[in-house]
Amino acid sequence: MMPITSLHRMPLIIALVLCALLATDAVAAPSKAFLRLDKNNDGKLSGAELSTSPAGLIKAIDTNGDGVITAREDSRYFSSRNRTPPRAVMATKKSTHPYANNDNPRQTVDVYQPLSRKSPNLPLLIFIHGGGWRSGSKDSGMRHLSEYVGSGKYVGASIGYRLTGETQWPSQIHDCKAAIRYLKANAATFGIDVDKIAVFGTSAGGHLSCMVAVSGNAPELEGKIGQHLKQSSSVTCGISYFGPTNFLRMNDYPGRMNHNAANSPESLLIGKPIQLDKSATQKANPVSYVDKEDPPMLFIHGTDDPVVAYNQSVLLSNRLKPLGVSGEIITVQGGEHGGFKNPQIKELERMFFEVHLHGARHKIKSQTVPN
User: Fold this and answer.
1) Which of left, alpha, beta for 43 (phi over 0: left; psi -120 to 50: alpha)?
2) DSSP H helices in the chain
3) Does one domain contain both 148 and 235?
4) Is residue 193 packed enough to be buried (19+ CB in 10 Å), middle (13-18) or exposed (0-12)?
5) Which of 133, 135, 323, 354 has the greatest CB tally within 10 Å of its CB?
6) What is the pTM of this model?
């Protein structure tokens, strides 16, 4: 048995995330980690009980800002943000497909189809995971896609791609585009409307989503992967959650890391310190590929992001708008690198998809919302 002192020191974020991933019931209840850390069984965590917990997570869960996490706050936060609604999961079927004509597990795509469809051919939502291009998994796509697919109005896909421990840029965008070409080539099998495809992702996945969206007219980024090279990899619209858009300006604002360092995620992606080969780095920047044919984009970014500074979304938006391309920004006041609490943010995401994939008449303009 693990000593009580070890349990006491266990980082709250690790335990809570594990509980959230394992949870199968949508009824709000304190997580197992909460119950374990609540030594005096008073239904709240405070003082020494929170002494080793990450400040960012405490701030996110502590909705009234009193420095204490109650059982109600814990259950509300993790049931609403990290637990996939079981009804949505049950209403979908998942299959995994290799898109590169090989057996590399990273070069596969998960396809989520609804068990009950509103139409034989549905719009496709493609999720690209984050993790600094060096970690992460397409498995995280389920949480982002299941409710949409479960509604019967969308097919979902989550792309796996090779990480920097295996290969450097432009392999990552080559993989994403190969996966999209595969999905389009098999549209009849999956019941996809190839004229209605959205791509979205978080952090590094936001960067790759931007690259997919703005590089429809950049044949040099297509690569030679897979059997469907004649298919287009263009998409209808895209959303970037706090994704980098110009690596050379990642250090414009102080943050948690030095992006110019040789071991930064961006330098590992390029294969060398980004400022030492600006030409190579520019080829990985979404801002380098903007043209007037680009699809509409939505950027969602926190003002206090310590990993990818807020200005990264502004830089790409400012390149799109003069060309007449929609590039609205949802500014999350006080938001950091994800962990957004305001349900309005997900509602704006949903509305964006409805507008561009279902013809809804919502007006989505740049705006600031509280975290």
Assistant:
1) left
2) 4-9, 12-22, 32-37, 55-61, 71-81, 86-90, 141-150, 171-185, 187-190, 204-214, 265-270, 278-282, 311-320, 343-358
3) yes
4) middle
5) 133
6) 0.78
Same domain, 227 and 298: yes
Provide the number of structural domains found in the chain.
Answer: 2
CATH number reported for the structural domain that contains residue 15 in this entry: 1.10.238
Q: Which of 59, 81, 103 is the last residue of a domain?
A: 81
Do you find a cis peptide bond into 244, omega within 30 degrees of 0? no
The length of the chain is 371
Range of the domain at 98: 86-370
Cα–Cα distance list, 331 to 127, 149, 174, 213, 371 (Å): 21, 27, 30, 20, 9
CATH code, domain with 268: 3.40.50.1820
What DSSP string describes 296-336?
PEEEEEETT-SSS-THHHHHHHHHHGGGT--EEEEEEET-B
pLDDT tens digits along 125-167 = 999 999 999 999 999 999 999 999 999 999 999 999 999 999 9
